[in-house]
Amino acid sequence: SQQGEEDPQALSIQEGENATMNCSYKTSINNLQWYRQNSGRGLVHLILIRSNEREKHSGRLRVTLDTSKKSSSLLITASRAADTASYFCATEAAGNKLTFGGGTRVLVKP
Amino acid sequence: DTGVSQNPRHKITKRGQNVTFRCDPISEHNRLYWYRQTLGQGPEFLTYFQNEAQLEKSRLLSDRFSAERPKGSFSTLEIQRTEQGDSAMYLCASSLASGVWELFFGEGSRLTVL
């Protein structure tokens, strides 16, 4: 079963716009991570936020975490056509493994 | 570049045949994970190793599936008596065991069972 659920399932935006996607999860976590996957490829780690952090930035990425609501958001600012991909949140609870959500498919139109 | 390497990248087989996938992790990583991903879904955890010890197996891993990491380096995932429902992308990832960790994924092995 998948711990996280992303919303929306799909997102279509114009180049230059911001893309926001959300992730909800069910159990307490140690950290939450976001990954990106281009079609037919492996996943690439984007950013990690610990359970005691509320916001984190990396380049054009901003991640927030609200442990009281068991939710996280990923914001990609000034999107580019190359940002077209699927984005997955993944949570680490106990057990040294990541549990992934179903993903948000992002299409950035030039 | 010594990233995570998976072979073969694609495998087409007939129902009932056995298949084996190999994963070579990043050399200094002592944890190795197998995930399965079907079209339009997120990766689902199958199993993981720390060094040569298999520490956890998902209930998804039926008795037709077996994974090994005999010397704590590369790993193999074997599926016996394949079924059409086994068609998926099999992803391998590795990580360090210490500190706050992230997964480094290979490009995956796509299995098609006819």
Keywords:
heterodimer; A: about 110 residues; mainly beta; six-stranded mixed sheet; 11 strands; globular; B: about 110 residues; seven-stranded mixed sheet; four-stranded antiparallel sheet; about 50% strand
Q: How does the SSE layout of this entry go?
A:
The complex is a heterodimer of chains A (110) and B (114).
Chain A: E1 5-7, E2 10-14, E3 19-24, E4 31-37, E5 43-50, E6 55-58, E7 61-66, E8 71-76, E9 85-92, E10 98-100, E11 104-109
Parallel strand pairs in A: 2-11
Antiparallel strand pairs in A: 1-3, 3-8, 4-5, 4-9, 6-7, 7-8, 9-10, 9-11
Chain B: E1 5-7, E2 10-13, E3 19-24, E4 31-37, E5 44-50, E6 53-57, E7 65-68, E8 75-79, E9 88-95, E10 104-105, E11 109-113
Parallel strand pairs in B: 2-11
Antiparallel strand pairs in B: 1-3, 3-8, 4-5, 4-9, 5-6, 7-8, 9-10, 9-11
Your description of this structure?
The complex is a heterodimer of chains A (110) and B (114). Chain A has 110 residues and is an all-beta fold. Chain A has strands at residues 5-7, 10-14, 19-24, 31-37, 43-50, 55-58, 61-66, 71-76, 85-92, 98-100, 104-109. In chain A, 37% of the residues are buried. Chain B is an all-beta fold and 114 residues long. Helix content of chain B is 0%, strand content 49%. In chain B, the strands form two sheets. In chain B, strands 2, 4, 5, 6, 9, 10 and 11 form a seven-stranded mixed sheet that branches. Chain B has a four-stranded antiparallel sheet with strand order 1-3-8-7, with no helix packed on it. In chain B, a hairpin with a 6-residue loop joins strand 4 (31-37) and strand 5 (44-50). Chain B is globular. The mean pLDDT of chain B is 94. At the A-B interface, strand 4, strand 5 and strand 10 of A face strand 4, strand 5 and strand 10 of B.
